[in-house]
Specification:
α8 (201-212) packs parallel to α9, α9 (236-246) packs parallel to α10 (262-275) and α9 crosses α12. By secondary structure, the protein is an alpha/beta fold. The chain has 12 helices and 17 strands. It has helices at residues 27-36, 87-90, 92-100, 106-119, 122-125, 144-157, 183-191, 201-212, 236-246, 262-275, 285-299, 348-362, and strands at 3-5, 12-17, 41-46, 48-55, 70-74, 77-79, 81-86, 128-135, 163-169, 173-180, 218-225, 249-254, 279-281, 303-307, 317-324, 333-335, 339-341.
Length: 363
């Protein structure tokens, strides 16, 4: 979101980018403005959002932490936390239904949401978006129906989380169901998919990150893939950087074992890890179910915090470090994205996104 306020002599232009979205600033234009009016200055303000998972040595999630328990630095500069929320509180209903082994009752869910909105509760303060990206290429032929079942089960288990979109891809990206709270519509989208040809995963994933980028609140992409990419115009590195810079979590479930395609496995691991998400390699339908369960649990236990960066002359990649404060908390493990880039409009990531779109739409 761009906010511009110009005064007669002393003009201040504030460019705000909410929830970790791209700050698209042209440094040369800034200098030109300053030269035209020496009394006008420009200040860039970016609100950086982080999704943080905290676990113990056994992988159990640690809940109940407070803002003062976290130390955030950007390029080694200490930052002040502006907002702080815990998913375990926001998505309490989803956790309870998950523990009971069945989706939350839709009538009770609506009543809970209404009560939260009226009272100013957690549900009214945060918006969550999940994009499911399903591989419908020829790699998926043998297990196509089983994959649809797994995704449909995941959609049903996410009652109470927020809005979900369902996309599929082979050579092209198909936005089958845009963001919605209607789980019936989503399941219809899943069941209506048909198998395609080659797999342009990185193209499609980059376009999905681009769709998620401007959204407020937590946003995540869950990829269900059955094979390597053999038709994309962009590399996985561009996907990883755009996901980091826009604060978009990437989770990847691959039904191919890592040793079958080491290059793709390494790319999947890196894209998910640097975004703050996870990669899973499922050998059978039980592993697939466990992976979806793990992703649901992860989304339901994230801490989300944001900050306005302190003055920093670095206009490129900015490294982020999140640590826990206090001797008793040092034993826990933290997972989050490790940085972001202030990207100009002609950056490689933006160009690659356009290339992916052009390539996807032309084939």
């Amino acid at each position: 979101m761009f906010l511009t306020s110009v005064f007669t002599r002393r003009a201040v232009t504030l460019i705000g980018v909410a929830t970790g979205y791209l700050l698209l600033t042209d440094a040369y234009a800034s200098r030109a403005v300053a030269q035209d009016d020496p009394l006008r200055f420009r200040m860039d303000v970016v609100l950086v959002q982080l999704n943080v998972a905290v676990t113990d040595d056994k992988g159990n999630y640690i809940t109940g932490l407070r803002p003062e328990d976290f130390l955030v630095t950007e390029d080694k500069i200490p930052e002040k936390i502006s907002t702080f929320e815990e998913s375990a509180e926001v998505h309490k209903g989803m956790l309870e239904s998950s523990a009971a082994g069945e989706p939350k009752d839709p009538v009770k869910a609506a009543a809970t949401d209404l009560e939260a909105n009226v009272s100013g509760g957690a549900a009214s303060r945060i918006s969550d978006s999940v994009f499911i990206l399903f591989d419908t290429s020829n790699y998926m032929y043998r297990s196509f129906v089983f994959a649809q079942d797994a995704i449909a089960d995941f959609v049903r288990s996410m009652d109470g989380y927020g809005k979900i979109a369902f996309y599929s891809y082979s050579r092209n990206l198909l936005r089958a169901t845009t963001l919605t709270s209607d789980r019936f519509r989503l399941e219809n989208g899943v069941r209506s998919t048909v198998a395609g040809d080659d797999a342009a995963l990185y193209n499609s994933l980059l376009l999905t990150v681009q769709d998620a980028a401007p959204l407020r609140g937590r946003k995540a992409i869950v990829v269900f893939s059955n094979g390597p990419d053999n038709a994309s115009a962009v590399p996985p590195e561009d996907v990883a950087e755009l996901a980091q810079s826009t604060g978009t979590l990437i989770y990847i479930i691959s039904t191919r074992q890592a040793q079958e395609d080491p290059a793709s496995a390494a790319a999947f691991e890196r894209m998910s890890r640097v975004s703050g998400g996870k990669a899973y390699f499922a050998k059978n339908w039980r592993d697939e179910k466990n992976a979806f369960d793990s992703i649901r649990e992860d989304l339901a236990h994230l801490y989300t915090l944001s900050y306005y960066p302190q003055p920093n002359p670095n206009r490129g990649w900015r490294s982020i470090s999140v640590k826990l404060v206090g001797k008793n908390l040092q034993k826990y493990h933290i997972r989050s994205r490790d940085g972001y880039r202030l990207l100009p409009p002609n950056s490689k990531a933006v160009q690659s996104s356009s290339e992916a779109k052009d390539d996807s739409e032309s084939k």
